[in-house]
Amino acid sequence: MTDPVLVEVTRGDVVESVHHGALAVVDADGAEVLVLGDVDRPVFPRSAVKVIQALPLIESGAADRYGLTDDELSLACASHSGEPRHAETAARMLARAGREPACLECGAHWPMGQEAARALARTGAEPTVLHNNCSGKHAGFICAACAMDVDPAGYIEPGHALQREVKAAMEALTGFAHRDELRGTDGCSIPTYAVPLRALARAFARIGTGTGLTRERAAAFARLRAAVAAHPFMVAGTGRFDTILMEALGARAFVKVGAEGVYCATFPELGLGIALKCDDGAARAAEVAMAALVERFLPLSAQEAEAVAALSRPQMRNWNGRLVGTMRPAAALASG
Amino acid sequence: MTDPVLVEVTRGDVVESVHHGALAVVDADGAEVLVLGDVDRPVFPRSAVKVIQALPLIESGAADRYGLTDDELSLACASHSGEPRHAETAARMLARAGREPACLECGAHWPMGQEAARALARTGAEPTVLHNNCSGKHAGFICAACAMDVDPAGYIEPGHALQREVKAAMEALTGFAHRDELRGTDGCSIPTYAVPLRALARAFARIGTGTGLTRERAAAFARLRAAVAAHPFMVAGTGRFDTILMEALGARAFVKVGAEGVYCATFPELGLGIALKCDDGAARAAEVAMAALVERFLPLSAQEAEAVAALSRPQMRNWNGRLVGTMRPAAALASG
């Protein structure tokens, strides 16, 4: 019943902590390439599906109508660190639709990036909704609602036309009915529905290949993926896993973190989709697991391999810079 | 083989994440009161044993010779948040022994407390060694070394006379040989040795009761426990679990968090010692588990029960203040 150990944390020569989890790697038809643990139990994908939540931004015509640029589209798919460029870009997206930051309903929080938070504090300012890690997604929601000619107010509620579009996109991509009893509320106040990892992985294989999608929808995802690949800073931030990985691999891997230990990804050239969750919700382990899957499946150049190895086996140093331990994929995950 | 689930994290009506772990509740003779999971595997106790690491500070005569006050002794047992009072108190301890902050070898880091970190950033300052969450412990090490008439320089190294004293205290309390192959380096650069939870729990039963200890050593622990009970702010900080719990319970519970999901504690009136570790290293789950054990074993007044319930079943609210989920002890832990 218990999912296998995916990631080990060492200190000295001792395994100090372990992270259990489950993952699915499938193709666009759902054929299994690798399955570990229970991938049929519904889990909240959280922010890992922001690229799907951004679909109405394209399909409503908003992206074209308001002339959204690729860095803005990347931010619409982002869980960003709240650095100045992130906040400024979210504000610019809103301005294109003639809206103000006050219309964002995600709530304000200090920048997720610790250095960004301290930099903001140094200026004496307080955080705004623009610093919320989801502000780009929410700005995209506003743009989409405006293009749909619906009042954006209340766009975070399950019954709002915008959220109904998001839910329809999620159900179409995953093939999994989004039932009310599997609904939770995300950190940014929009609904999140639990979906099996297997269905999420297949959705991402479709996002990476277009298989099973209309030509328009396949093109919409190709556009969003290209935007993120061209602007990996926007989708996360300085020193963040998603930014580092996509700076190294470009469009070869589209990866997106979600809260509570979730990752979704696609390797378009292999036609594969991936979804994983660390059972304990640990981001550090989800990152190591994601990097291990990149190493396991994608042929890498020496330069790419070096960049990914730093993510799959991160060294942990203490406040004096001493190497005290490592994180590493467990046997089940690392072995070819 | 896998330890049981100790803590569940819910979102909506769904269990979103789970935390496995092990724990031992024993008396000073080692008799089992409650054991869950594997408590015989050595685990790094990390900062959960700071009260034992502070023993040389008392037994060297330093505490008396330098006139250390109870708030300073509490800080010597602390993983503090780096708030101004913490940093000032560490500096004062050093001054009593005629030493400067520069002699601390723990390394500098931004205050562990996010609000304290931002407050420091607002002043334009950078963090110093005094802000390190272990600065009180290290200031205590310096005082102890001075009272031992040994040069404090290099006091973080395993071979230094001070660390040999710390190791001897740990071995005497736990009855477990500290072998080099089970040695790691802690965040603050001192050695940490892996010890079974069962042995740690018995050590804390002894700390709480004095059973099996010399009269002098029993008195030393009683003094340290009383100092922490009188100054729970010093041992952690604003909004922190250990501070809140000991503000509510006073000397009825001595609890101390360690990194990577560890807690050690004693309930002196019951003669019990406790050691637990969440296998994934999650502090949030270790806290819930610790609070659940307080509820399970200690008779509580209505006011105490209310304070502890907020810790054993914390509500998680999002950036708009909406209740999105809870953490709670799993069945194995909660049931009487």
Automatic annotation (TrEMBL), chains A, B:
<protein>
    <submittedName>
        <fullName>Asparaginase</fullName>
    </submittedName>
</protein>
<dbReference type="InterPro" id="IPR010349">
    <property type="entry name" value="Asparaginase_II"/>
</dbReference>
<dbReference type="Pfam" id="PF06089">
    <property type="entry name" value="Asparaginase_II"/>
</dbReference>
